[in-house]
Amino acid sequence: MEQGDSRTIGFHKMDTDYRNAILNEINLIGRSSSHDRKIPLRSIYFGGGTPSLAPLSTLQEIMDAILHSESAPFQLMDENSDNDPAEITIECDPGTFDKPFLESIKSMGFNRISLGVQSFDDDLLTIMGRFHRSADIYNSIRLIAEVFGGDKANYSIDLISGVPGLTLGGWKDTLRKAVSLHPQPMHISVYDLQVEKGTAFGRWYSSENEEEASQLKRMPNATSTPHPSLPSIDVCASMYRDTSTYLRSNNYEHYEISSYARIDDNGRSHRSKHNQIYWEIGGEWYAIGLGATSNINGFRYSRPRALSDYISDVGDETKWISSVSRRESYEVVDKDDDALLDIIMTRLRTSDGLDLEWVAKEYGEFYVKAIMKGVRYFEEETDLVKVSPGNIKLTDPDGFLFSNNIISNIFVELD
């Protein structure tokens, strides 16, 4: 057997094992649900990795298990109409799909594509270790338009700022290219590069401070090839401000720290329905698969991160249902201080802000006073916080930019 054949067989075995485990978990959710009827869903999201690389048969089987089989535990919410359908998204990397693939997933019910663009600069894509190039991006968007309705195609793109070698001028060019796409993306997510341990960037830049970041560093054990420096903190802050200013001036609503929704000609903002569930008060969701975290009935629980552990976890019905009933591996997120901190953090990341009347009703006036004390300096001495009767919002962009400082100050007062 040749090496290529061995790898193909290994991939198919892993796909089969993981698909069957996911199907088992979906089935177990239905069998253990306290609902008398199917569980209503506002959105479905296929993400985590690159699901566009999965075989179409795998995607179809999972979709059938969720919605269409006789034992399917879920259904799309009744109130969604043709004008406002439930959102069914799949993450795709540019260059990983063709037109027949898109036609197939559309027939399955997918109506939104999340495209991992990250940059339009081929050199930066190389630095980030991405396999696609700008030509793949434009070709992928052309295919999405052909299959999903031209100008009405519902797709989102992700962009990454703060990348090594990225200048402020280069970032402005990225934003211009993003809004010049045809059709325009309905949604744009913008994330600042996070340098984490265990990654190539973590090894290259972990010792850099702000002064060192202005100089070229050399790769460990490399020859004479340097890799570019990280943008300074000030440049990254300018990138964030420029993003907010430019996208808002081009009819995008900045509705969450990293999220921008296109406002169409009818005045409708195309916010991500799925993401908003995570940010709303009382939001509940089922998450299925490796390391996925669900939040149901006041309890948050995670699945194992190792494939063998996950397969074992969902392969024993008695054990699985028993662990659910005993709430093993569950984190209680009931009405306590930790839950309030989580709500404060997520709500202040949104343009809608934190509802103080809700806090008073659920937790009491003491907590409202502590929150107000936490933001008093920022309200009185800066332009970072806007307080109105019953509500606190962070200003855009600087309030969002300094959100960690503001939220931490609130947490200190609540401690």
Description:
By secondary structure, the chain is an alpha/beta fold. Helices cover 45% and strands 17% of the residues. The chain has 16 helices and 17 strands. It has helices spanning 3-32, 56-68, 99-108, 122-127, 134-148, 168-179, 200-205, 233-249, 273-279, 307-315, 317-325, 337-348, 356-363, 365-381, 398-401, 403-414; strands at residues 39-41, 43-46, 74-76, 87-92, 112-118, 155-161, 187-192, 217-218, 226-227, 252-256, 259-262, 293-296, 299-302, 330-332, 354-355, 385-388, 391-394. Strands 2-4-5-6-7-11-10 form a seven-stranded mixed beta sheet, covered by helices on one side. A hairpin with a 7-residue loop joins strand 8 and strand 9. The radius of gyration is 23 Å and the shape is globular. The termini are far apart. The relative contact order is 0.08.
In short:
By secondary structure, the protein is α/β, with parallel strands linked by helices. It has helices at residues 3-32, 56-68, 99-108, 122-127, 134-148, 168-179, 200-205, 233-249, 273-279, 307-315, 317-325, 337-348, 356-363, 365-381, 398-401, 403-414; strands spanning 39-41, 43-46, 74-76, 87-92, 112-118, 155-161, 187-192, 217-218, 226-227, 252-256, 259-262, 293-296, 299-302, 330-332, 354-355, 385-388, 391-394. It has 16 helices and 17 strands.
